[in-house]
Fold this protein.
Amino acid sequence: MDDVLALARLQFALTAIAHYLFVSLTLGLVTFLVVMQTRWAITGKEKHRAQTRFWGQLYLINYALGIGTGIVMEFQFGLNWSGLTHVAGNVFGAPLVVETLVAFFAESTLLGLWVFGWDRLRRTTHTVLIWLVALTAYASVFFVMAANGFLQNPVGTRVKDGEMVPVDAAALFQNSNASSAMTHILTGALTTGAFFVVAVSAWHLRKRTAHTEFFWSSMKLALPVAVVMAMVTGVMGAGLFQSVAENTPTKLGPGDKNAVAQAEEFTEKFGPDNYFAPDYVNTAESFMVSLWGVMMVVTIISALFLIKRNLIRRRILLWLLSAAVVLPYLASIAGWILREAGRQPWAIYGVLKTEDAITPGTTFGGALASLLVFGVLVAALTLVDWALLLRFARRGPDAAHLGRAQGPDEKPADVAALTY
């Protein structure tokens, strides 16, 4: 049973982490698109339109492939974790359903109108669409975190015939554990988006490509945001420890008196077990804090050289800014390990153990096959995503087919995209 549980947990960890890597960039880039297109709508300047088209195309690549990883992740609730859905599906399933309606239908529909509305809709209408896309993306995060916050701090429910049923929807959606984590996640996503824009811009500036002015403008927009958002994300992350102390104290380890008291209470109620966070969770926390320090140093030093375009002449800093694109991703992975693995052995903290949440009858062979199939799938989607992002990012704004104006002798955009 332990081996089966380990495989099921590993599968969910890999798919959840892979999906979040897409989500963090999607949230970050769509916010920059709102700024870029709003500037275009107000000024009518072609350079802002070109920025929207180029970064918008990269956003679409990441968004499209990210949907696949999200679908894979949700399959597992029925495949490997039916014990969890049986006990609490009526509670945490509700916000996930709303999230699907908001993200998969509303957001995708609005995004489709934005994609195909170039040169067909009025500029103001087209700009409103990207604002709505961003708002639905944020709403999606809210509902997902409502579900995740419930697993960390089960509120607004009562147990009836062995199942948890909602009794206070307001408590579920106002869960302090979810709201504090959501703020941290949004600022972290903005950090990821800013680092991505900075990294691509830095590469073009270092290579002295033909689009220096284009990417210098993007750098001036994104680098200050990277500094501010990294700082705010660190502050928000530090503030989460208050929520941890209140909702999931055993994450703090045996050196904390509240954690010890909670572990003793669990032992009396559920029997002996290791109720403290695994050692690797503390390692993940230290790793995350260290990465934050590196991000702050690199971005602050680089931002000082924005004055009089000095950054363009500092090739080592440009190289560091390009390489630093991985830092917010690694920090996000460490953060999720801290949040999710830290509450072990609980699937629902203080209510349902992970070993009781797994689907009854799951065999080692079945769990291993599921891990391999879904693991290969999400790995392939991630590799394809980064290959396409790298390809089109290197080509620069001339390769952007999104919103390309159609000339009388030009091929349709979809054919051109295939033959470019």
Q: What stands out?
A: The radius of gyration is 23 Å. Residues 408-420 have pLDDT under 50 and may be disordered.
